Amino acid sequence: MANLVGIYAASHGPMIVRSWNALTLACKGAITAGFDELGNRINAAHADVLVVISPDHWVNFFMDNLPAICVGVGETHAGPPEPWLAAYPHQQMAGHAPLAQHIVAQAFARGFEPSVSYQLALDHGFCIPLWKAGIAPLPAIVPVVINTVEPPFPSVRRCYEWGAVLADTIASFPGNTRVAILATGGLSHSIGEPTMGAIDEAFDRECLQHFATGEREALFRFLDQRMQGAGNGTAEVRNWLAAHGAAGARGFDLIHYSAQPEVYVGCGFASWNAIAAPETRSQ
Amino acid sequence: MRDYHLSKLFFDLQTPAAAGEYRAHRDAVLARYALKPEVRAAIENDDVATLAPLVNAYLLRFYFLASGMPEEEFLRRIRATASKAHG
User: Fold this and answer.
1) Residue pairs spanning A and B at CB distance below 8 A
2) Which of A148, A157, A199, B13 has the smallest count of CB within 10 Å of its CB?
3) Please, is B21 exposed, middle or buried when counting C-beta atoms within 10 Å of its C-beta (0-12, 13-18, 19+)?
4) Is-contact A246 A163, C-beta < 8 A?
5) Which CATH class is domain A3-281?
6) Using the beta-carbon criterion (under 8 Å), do B8 and A63 form an inter-chain contact?
7) What secondary structure letter does DSSP report for A155?
8) Structure confidence by residue, pLDDT tens digits, A201-233
9) Which chain B residue lies closest to A232 (C-alpha atoms)?
10) How large is the angle between the packed helices A156-171 and A237-246, nearest 10 degrees?
């Protein structure tokens, strides 16, 4: 059966690329250090496939149809359409249709009904971490979109449970494929709102502490009470929750956190160093 | 409450070609969308405060970037909506 060889999370703020040349050395240094260590850990895992969990920032989906969860089952995925990401090195990225289809089929058998897409373009949420972490060679990508952009959003509990299902479905994939999970987005930020530019560092640090403690119910309560008030972009912490669920809420290891107002984001980088046994994920 | 047609306009303007056409021929582009008169007027007046409640905040921010409003000016206007809301 396939091996889940690593679980990671990283912020993906667009200004990290759009405004890079204008950032202070301190800001660049903090972000670079986070991405470098993240990349070292991902590259060391030698994954054949990377399941990347990110929002869709109005690239593939509109209000005609906004899936709560969508799995990219295509043989390939298009690179980022944002003009300011023209230098991104991959215009196309290989997918892994057999694993993606397996995840979807097994999810339906386990109480989740994700939508599927045979043709996704992967926006900055996917591509900035892949690029800036220096992941090479780039594994095949199975993109998983969780809607954290336009309400209604899946609940925090549901996102955690989706991560647990994701890990279980990966573990039941035939063969010896090495699979890693990378969740992107967050931590606190506010875009296009009156609070735009604000970072709720107190929220971020308490949130990270909850991830480290590993008490799920306390984490869910905290997020239900505080996430909405920490900025619209903070909804992307749902992706971290999916990663946390995949790890069975164990082994959280913070690589770096710093509030970075220059890129509008509380920047976080993390991995989970204990891959949970299947029976611990759903408890 | 979202305004679908306003949202669709902002969504469609994400490609450089569409944004370029919009800047060159704004009236012609706006005519393709079933916009309420007051919404169209808000667009024509760069009225951030009126448009903000009608559209997703990411699309709002993107639209004003694409239409050429400097980031600092957008920030000033969107932050002012909070001041108005709180009297």
Assistant:
1) 49
2) A157
3) middle
4) yes
5) alpha beta
6) yes
7) P
8) 999 999 999 999 999 999 999 999 999 999 999
9) B57
10) 40
